[in-house]
## 1
Amino acid sequence: MLASGHQALGLSSGLIVMTLLPQIGLVPGTPFETVLFMVFVLFGSLIPDIDTPRSKLGYHFWRGLIIVLLLAFGFYLFAPEYLDQYRNELKVFVMLMTPLLVMVKSHRKMTHSLFFIILLVIYHMVIIHFFNVPSYYFFGFITGVVSHLLGDYVTKRGIPLFYPVYRKHFRFLFTFKTGSALEKGLIWFLSIWNLWFLVTQVF
């Protein structure tokens, strides 16, 4: 699936999960936290495709990560009080990035499997338990990752659901080719639905 498709599907999934969070007692306290939740959703929806720096998305991601780290270092040297203001958010970002650094190998392997999701769930449970990190950020990130796997599951190539135990690629009964007219139509539909949902909820 194209990156735009993953983002559209991720946003749709995030909006749905956002409406369900209050039922389990998870409500962002401020508008900023709500926006940050959706940022984690969109970030998670692209994460599985950064498993190789040689991919188009992976290349831009790793280059962007270096820029972010350089900016953070600059703020640390010249404006440390600004970093203190967003210390918790930066802590969450760094913790999310750590397990990804050991999974750069090849495309549609570890990061496109159920094992990857299980690892992320366990990792984030440890973070939530030992650090003061709001759990809804975790739900947002995992929502994005799951939406990505669902998006690639309905493509003709499929995904290795049980990697590394079983390397066969699985796919849905009805599939489409990545970049096809059908996928682009789906992206338009999801984008319009997302816009409609946001407008009706806000106004």
## 2
Amino acid sequence: MKKDFWLERWERKEIGFHQNEINPYLRQYWQELHLAHGGEVFVPLCGKSNDLSWLRNQGHPALGVELSAIAAQAFFEENGHIPHRVASENFDCYEADSISILCGDFFDLRKNDLAKVCAVYDRASLVALPPDMREHYVLHLVNILPPAAQILLITFDYPQSEMSGPPFAISPGDMEALYRPHAEIRHLAQLDVLAQNQRFQERGLSLLRENIFLLTLR
């Protein structure tokens, strides 16, 4: 999927994927990670998610990466912050109140960018990628994360033939194929959620499940 697709979505304010509320699975399952206070959390393709603020409020500096400067700037503006901005070779970094957003391409991240990260929260990243990009994404992520980092991952599963993504369908079997070579996998929950998601009903889905996984890198 081309970068311009997401940049244009933000320019046109076509951001139905954005959630104003804190993700309920983040609230419910975050304690499963047992992170030490002060451990940094990485949020890939973070947009302007208020989950960043929730993580910070739990005592974890939050580090996001986001293609769109519109999204990064909107996050800080909507939360009443004037961020400090530092430009580097690959990213513009916006930072305020223990929250940083690297504005640029996820695939330009290097190990030194995530050196302090102890966990990843992925609600909107893997599901945003078509199948032919997933393996590249996972390999890059596991290669730049510190050893034993944990990942709280939320995915959608539905008949892919009934709807074109994003978000794309990812089955538990797909998860196993992607991450089993690199991590221990706990399947925390599977929930039928079609009845609570009218916009997906309107797109013709007959089934929609959300799966929550906890991964620990080897």
